[in-house]
Amino acid sequence: MFDLFNPFSRLAASSAALAVEANSVIGLRLFAMATGAGSDRENRRMVSEKTAAFVEAQMEVATSLMLGQGHLAPARVVKLYRRKVRANRRRLNPG
């Protein structure tokens, strides 16, 4: 049974939402590239954002571990990535 009060269920639901949201951003970027609307600047931004998000995720994990809250690290990382993906979706699809 799926119980949103269970932390593992919440993490699973949030991870699934991240997968769907990330897929929509990938689609928007691929469409822009295929139609010529994409730019080299956007492609460079995409790579640099991924690198920065990875570093931020590592910091979330390290901070969680140092605070003795390692069990919260996965949810914090998923939350971080979802925030980044939502920002990209809003920027790429303003309508």
Give short descriptive properties of this protein.
mainly alpha, 0% strand
Largest sheet: none
Structural class: mainly alpha
Number of strands: 0
Low-confidence runs: none
Radius of gyration: 16 Å
Helix percentage range: over 70%
**Distinct helical segment count:** 3
DSSP strand content: under 5%
Q: How many domain modules? A: 1
The geometry reads as flat
N-to-C terminal Cα separation, in Å? 37 Å
Order of helices and strands: HHH
Oligomer: single chain
Q: Averaging pLDDT over every residue, what do you get?
A: 92
Furnish the topology, listing elements before pairings:
Blueprint: H1 7-35, H2 40-66, H3 73-92
What does this structure look like?
With 95 residues, this protein is an all-alpha fold. The protein has one domain (7-92). It is 80% helix and 0% strand. The protein is built from three helices and no strands. Helix 1 (7-35) packs parallel to helix 3 and helix 2 (40-66) packs antiparallel against helix 3 (73-92). The model has no long low-confidence stretch (mean pLDDT 92).
